[in-house]
Amino acid sequence: MARFLAVYTMRPGNVASFRALPKTEQDAIDAEGVAQWAAWEAHNSAFILDRGGMVGKTMRVTKDGVAKAVNHICGYLVVEAESAEAAALRFQDHPHITVFPGDAVDITQFVT
């Protein structure tokens, strides 16, 4: 089986829209999403190699130095599957895109 990096993405505008909701609404979405996320991970535990995690602000290092950067990456997970398509199919109902204001989950194969 091949290993894949699943990268959770979220547009900054989606985060801002979510944070603009009333706190009670945010809390309700969080409660529903966290429960569904845990259920998704339990259901797919056999193919998860590394639960990864959520990530924060980005710093970029180039030959010109270090600077703040902006990207849409907000988390990651490492999974195992027969193909990229098989890995991607497991994420179709993921709470990142069905409950939370997530933009997408990008699936990329590790090169060995």
Kindly describe this structure.
With 112 residues, the protein is of the alpha+beta class. The chain has one domain (2-109): Dimeric alpha+beta barrel (Alpha-Beta Plaits), CATH 3.30.70.1060. It has helices at residues 12-20, 23-43, 84-90, 95-98, and strands at residues 2-9, 48-54, 58-62, 65-69, 73-81, 104-109. The strands form two sheets. It has a four-stranded antiparallel sheet. A two-stranded antiparallel ribbon has the order 3-4. The model has no long low-confidence stretch (mean pLDDT 96).
Core attributes:
two-stranded antiparallel ribbon; 4 helices; alpha+beta; Alpha-Beta Plaits; 4-stranded antiparallel β-sheet; single chain; flat; 112 residues
What is the structure about, briefly put?
The chain is built from 4 helices and 6 strands, in the order βααββββααβ. 37% of the residues lie in helices and 36% in strands. Strands 2-5-1-6 form a 4-stranded antiparallel β-sheet. A two-stranded antiparallel ribbon has the order 3-4.
